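Our example pasted here:


***
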Amino acid sequence: MNDMGSQGTGSEGNHAPHADLMDQVYRRQRHIYDLTRKYYLLGRDRLVRDLRAREHQSIVEIGCGTARNLILVHQSYPKVRLYGLDASEAMLQTARESLASAGIGVKAVLRQGLAEEMRPSLFGLTQPFDHAVFSYSLSMIPDWRGALLAAADATAPEGRIHIVDFGDLKGLWLPAARGLRAWLRLFHVAPRDELLGALETGEENRAGRLLYILPGRYAFVFQASPAVIRKIALLKT
């Protein structure tokens, strides 16, 4: 394993249009991101609590942003190995600063790239991850199905993929739901309505574990094996 530390972005940094867009969106917002998002990115702490990671297991967050979740994972599971991928180099700059301030800058490996191209080799690894995390990132990834497939391929068969994201909002007062969707679009966020529907139906719900749906179907927390996630990604709704 070649852990180069959180300062490196690797030689395979991806500057595709989506990455450039994310840099434009977050170049200034990154400084206040954690302060403002804690009021509506709900369920993230629950996801971390339910990781139940064992010592020396590897955890990658796809769309790691400011590293807020990676720091919380370290505090909860101090002996795991941390990895983070994000499309925005601007956000990764804040992530490095946050990790350094938390005293774990050398314990987390960050790379810039697109979620649908994520693989262990981007981090110098030859073995799959034990856990992969999507925290309010699938709703920002244009090819969210491709991102799920990449995570399924990059996670060990006995590993787990964990998701927290916006729900379909069907339980909210209709004007409130419409207003929320309009506001989220300003940040290029779109709840994946069909994803929550897939998680609630048939084999996917039995084989995985739908942990929690917030009131109003505002958000959900889910985890499943890579095999189940692959089926969900390929399911057409």
Summary: The chain has a mean pLDDT of 85.
